[in-house]
Automatic annotation (TrEMBL):
Taxonomy, superkingdom: Bacteria
Localization in the cell: Cell envelope; Cell outer membrane; Secreted
Protein name (record): Secretion system C-terminal sorting domain-containing protein
SUPFAM superfamilies reported for this sequence: Pectin lyase-like
Signal peptide: 1-23
InterPro entries for the chain: Pectin_lyas_fold (IPR012334), Pectin_lyase_fold/virulence (IPR011050), POMP_repeat (IPR003368), Secre_tail (IPR026444)
């Protein structure tokens, strides 16, 4: 059965949308023309370079269709070189699509043989991306989709797919390379099929910024590859003090590396760095090197006391030696982490390996030792304990099976402390008796999402001032359900009559309005500003 959420998205765009533009906004379309003025969808620009040059600081670029960045006249490679360097962002710009399946940017054009990185974020630049796909970005050495060399990136509901960093100088960050940054935030993003020598999806060389935060929330990393030097999905080599890396409600699965760190590699990072891994699922990642190279999380030799906090998470079934040997958490170090440096709570940590075949006393690090280092070194699928199900390839998450001990093993306070009450799919976590499911997905299986049914005539949905209005020709029972683009319900209100109004002053961005009138329902996309 096809996913109902996908059906809803299709119906949304058939039903149309309402967009509210400000004076700072410009429009960009695959069918546009740079001789247009770019001030409306009907007069959209054709190239990203023109749109960036025209948009005001703090403005929005609305994108329709897929734009070939590699063919942009402002991004052609210099003579004798093969790669475009990507469009530079040196101001505050938001780039907004309506559907990541239909809108975004491409770094490779088979017809023109164009090759390019997609974006460069420089000092003072803030790049905000929403509801887009960045695909086929190709760069020399650094970041196939984005090279961050100052400034910040904020991405929500964005796919980074099939991007590559290649070259002869240890190419890093298949999708994203970070040299300097004031902060990074990724929410409901998918990193899939990206490749580099190190950091298949993202490589962080440094932030050059004390106390910067990098945050991944409800993200999935699937089938990324580090071909030589580790970090199949993520590689962190941070030199600045006091940085925080937060990975929440996320899934890292089927990533691989030929070097160290099957999915996450932490190397040469100062003791003041803190990694918080909360309600995250890290399973089925592969290191092709031998024992001690790290199939799941690797803390490397040069790390002298990095702080690792793992809460409500599943880290099992990760292997090295081409799948023969279990390694879920690996300390390839000459020191044993102190209690404050490794804190694990309400989690499944399958196999723990410390170089020299030393052991770490689990009593110091796990508030329940039931699921600590329970897997043998020789991989045995029958010994897996979490009850995780196979990867759902439509939603890129691992649900839990019925009867799994992980369904109620989580401690709700870890999510409540950071004001999160949903899972990776936007489902509300009930937190019954102070508990929740461990891992990225709450409960059993995959929810059906929003159902798109018939669209009765005589119903209008529009924004007026700071209110969203539902108006019908005839009086009846009206219910409005408002969902985020990821499928999370954010509002529900009902009335009897011919008009329903809802205050939207606290909302901004793209939402899905599901309207029910006397048993009939349909959906419409709205952009609230």
């Amino acid at each position: 059965m096809k996913n109902n959420l996908l059906k809803a998205f299709i119906a949304i765009f058939l039903c149309g949308s309402t967009l509210f533009a400000s004076a700072n906004d410009v429009y960009l379309s695959a069918t546009g023309n740079d001789s247009n003025d770019g001030t409306a969808a009907a007069t959209a620009y054709a190239t990203l370079g023109k749109a960036i040059a025209s948009v005001s600081d703090g403005g929005i670029i609305y994108v329709s269709g897929f734009i070939y960045v590699c063919d942009d006249p402002t991004n052609l490679p210099p003579d004798g070189e093969y790669y475009g360097n990507g469009l530079a962002i040196a101001k505050n710009v938001k780039i907004q699509g309506s559907n990541k399946k239909t809108d975004g940017f491409l770094g490779f054009n088979e017809s023109t043989y164009g090759l390019s990185r997609i974006f460069r974020v420089n000092a003072n630049g803030v790049l905000t991306l929403n509801s887009l796909t960045l695909r086929d970005g190709l760069a020399f050495n650094k970041g196939g989709a984005i090279h961050v060399n100052g400034g910040a990136v904020v991405a929500e509901n964005v796919n980074f797919e099939d991007c590559t960093a290649e070259g002869v100088e240890q190419p890093a960050g298949g999708a994203i390379m970070v040299d300097k940054s004031t902060g990074l935030s990724f929410k409901n993003c998918l990193f899939k099929n990206n490749k580099a020598e190190k950091g298949g999806a993202l490589y962080m060389q440094d932030t050059d910024n004390t106390s910067a935060e990098t945050r991944f929330e409800a993200c999935s990393f699937v089938n990324n590859e580090a071909s030589a030097r580790g970090g199949g999905a993520l590689f962190f080599r941070i030199m600045a003090e006091g940085n925080k890396i937060n990975i929440i409600n996320s899934t890292l699965s089927t990533n691989r590396t030929s070097g160290n760190g099957g999915v996450i590699s932490i190397y040469n990072t100062p003791a003041s760095t803190t990694f918080n891994i909360i309600n995250t699922t890290i399973v089925n990642n592969l290191g092709l090197s031998g024992g001690g190279s790290g199939g799941g999380i690797l803390v490397g030799e040069n790390d002298k006391g990095v702080n690792l906090r793992i809460q409500n998470s599943i880290i099992e079934g990760n292997t090295v030696a081409s799948g023969a040997t279990s390694e879920d958490l690996t300390y390839f170090t000459s020191y044993d982490p102190a209690t404050e440096q490794l804190q694990i709570s309400n989690s499944y940590i399958g196999n723990v390996y410390v170089s020299g075949a030393r052991t770490i006393n689990p009593v110091c690090y796990e508030n329940s030792t039931l699921y600590w280092n329970y897997l043998p070194r020789t991989y045995d699928a029958l010994s897996l304990a979490s009850g995780i199900d196979n990867l759902n390839t439509e939603r890129n998450v691992h649900p839990l099976k019925a009867g799994s001990s992980a369904l109620t093993y989580g401690n709700a306070t870890y999510l409540q402390a950071i004001s999160i009450n949903t899972d990776a799919l936007g489902q509300v976590r009930a937190f019954a008796d102070g508990k929740c499911s461990v891992g990225a997905v709450e409960g059993v299986g995959i929810p059906s999402g929003i159902q798109a049914l018939d669209a009765p005539a005589g119903i209008a949905v529009y924004q007026k001032d700071n209110q969203l209005v539902v108006k019908t020709v005839a009086s009846g029972n009206i219910q409005l359900q408002l969902y985020s683009i990821s499928g999370q319900k954010v509002l529900q209100q009902s009335t009897i009559g011919s008009e329903l109004t809802v205050t939207t002053s606290a909302l901004q961005g793209i939402y899905i309005a599901k309207v029910l009138v006397d048993g009939h329902s349909y959906v419409q996309k709205v952009v609230i500003k």
